[in-house]
Amino acid sequence: MVSSDFRRLMQGFGLTTAHIFYRMPDHPALLQSFVWQQHDLHPHFPELHKFLDFWKRELDGALHSVIVAHCGLIKPSEFHTVDGEFHLN
Predict the structure, then answer these.
(1) What is the pTM (predicted TM-score) of this model?
(2) CA dist 9 to 15, 37, 41, 76, 78, Å?
(3) Domain coordinates in residue numbering, the chain
């Protein structure tokens, strides 16, 4: 039986890191940073968008910028089947 995490990886989910810069409500001249990390789908990043929508709706710190890095943890060329089972190269 294949795990749900493995299925998600095969569907294109990969480790996504977002470095979020935001302004403090009491000190708008200062930028703070927050690092968010989750498995998400490239290139539309629905989980990241959901988190940023929550941020804008619920938090006071105004977003300044977001830098996104994404890495597919398992690529199709890195695994093969042996007797019907998946194996990493």
Answers:
(1) 0.74
(2) 9, 15, 9, 10, 12
(3) 4-88
Tokens in use for 3? 């795990």
What does pLDDT average to over the chain? 85
Note the pLDDT tens digit of each residue in 49-60: 999 999 999 999
Tally of residues, the chain: 89
Cα–Cα separations (whole angstroms), residue 84 to 2, 28, 73, 80, 81: 11, 58, 21, 9, 6
| CB neighbour burial string for 62-79, b if at least 16 within 10 angstroms, e if fewer | eeeebeeebeeeeeeeee
Which ranges of 1-89 would DSSP assign to H, the alpha helix? 4-10, 46-58
Backbone angles phi and psi of 9, in degrees to 5: -60, -40
